[in-house]
Design goal:
Shape: elongated
Number of domains: 2
Organism: Flavobacterium tibetense
Distance between the termini: 53 Å
Protein name: OmpW family protein
Number of helices: 1
Oligomer: single chain
Structural class: mainly beta
Keywords: Signal
GO biological process, one term: transmembrane transport
Helix content: 10-25%
Strand order of the largest sheet: 1-4-5-8-9-11-12-15
Length: 220
């Protein structure tokens, strides 16, 4: 009888220890996998161009835009981020045979997906730095042609590099600072037939913008 009682007690003790171990493991994997950020972003093109017929270079204006992004954590250190925002830029051809040519403006919609490594994601720290890299696909829309008849931009695939940090205010809310460099080029065709009959000017334009942002975020 005593042996049976001791056996039951031993099994019960092992069961309790197993349950406690499982609960601890579950708690260690129980973390907020989603976060959302709202940032103000300065878009600073690092532009250059090869322009046919009239030669010269390109000048693209800076922009200040709102940006929304969503991040999903596969683990406490590895995450994927989708960045959404749109910007309007004024464009000029400069130092050409015709001088400075106003090419109007164009809107860019550049959704960007990056994979990130969060260095201290597994630790309860205030400062959480990360790096990332990914792809970008930029859509050009609502182009205004300036003094020429028309300007068309080809949508383009680019690549992104990212560096930033989250500064935790508590376990849910945080401040974020983030810098991205987008490696982006597009083919542009300028229809200047309103100035010179049948004049079409091709150009290869490297935009390569820096995106410098600061904002607030929430984990959930």
């Amino acid at each position: 009888m005593k042996r049976i009682i001791f056996a039951v007690m031993a099994v019960s003790l092992l069961a309790v220890n197993f349950v406690n171990a499982q609960e601890e493991e579950t708690k260690s994997d129980d973390f907020k996998r989603w976060q959302v950020r709202f940032r103000g972003v300065g878009v600073v093109p690092n532009e250059s161009a090869t322009i046919g017929v009239i030669g010269g270079d390109v000048s693209i204006s800076n922009a200040l835009i709102p940006e929304l992004d969503f991040t999903y954590f596969f683990t406490k250190n590895i995450a994927a981020e989708l960045i959404l925002g749109t910007a309007k830029h004024d464009v000029q051809a400069i130092e050409t045979a015709a001088g400075t040519v106003d090419l109007g403006s164009v809107w860019l919609l550049p959704p960007t997906l990056t994979v990130q490594y969060h260095f201290l994601g597994h630790k309860e720290t205030t400062f959480k730095p990360y790096v990332g890299a990914g792809v970008n696909y930029t859509l050009f829309y609502n182009a205004k042609s300036g003094i020429v008849k028309d300007v068309s931009y080809d949508n383009a695939l680019g690549y992104a590099a990212q560096l930033g940090f989250d500064l935790m205010l508590d376990d849910k809310f945080f401040i974020n600072m983030d810098v991205k460099h987008i490696f982006l080029s597009t083919d542009v065709t300028v229809d200047a037939s309103n100035l010179v009959p049948d004049l079409s000017i091709p150009a290869e334009v490297d935009i390569n913008p820096w995106l410098i942002g600061i904002g607030f975020g929430m984990k959930f």
